[in-house]
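Q: What would this chain look like folded?
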Amino acid sequence: MERPAGHDDRVDKVDYPADPSAALEQMMERHGNDVLRTAYFYMGDRHLAEDVSQEVFLRAYRHWTSFRGDSTVKTWLTKITVHLCRDRLRRKSAAETPTDPALIRLDAERAAGRNAEDEAMHRLSRSGFLSKLAELPPHYHEALYLYYYLDLSTREIAEATGTPEGTVRGRLSRARELLAERLQREELTS
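A: My prediction, written as structure tokens:
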């Protein structure tokens, strides 16, 4: 279920001005909402998401001239966003380590196996359909979010997350199956 290459806002670097300031303005206009929504998806807090968004566009501005354009601008910005969010969540997790041995044990039990993606999905579990989505393993959440909410192709998701494209396709397929099973089970019990 791959999307066509020229789908929607798939704009290459050549379609932007060479001047970083002018390109930044266009990037923010075209992709600002997607960057903010993606940051919120991971961070779960509007203010943190806004901070990440600003950092994303600052990095894009700084690296505009060295960006070769091997991917679309949207994919490049998504990759920067995903990596920044993962880094911040790792740092936040390390900084919030309790010093009381009882709390350390409790915190470790709660967070066993939870990484940045787990945390992001844990926060999304507060609403209807998203709560069903949140029951899926984190790598499935991420793939579904980037595919359906950001409208990225499997190739672009692979680039943004550093995951092989075949793995992304497999995760999307398995995530759809699991989600359908859970929704069907819920329908049978209602």
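The radius of gyration is 18 Å.
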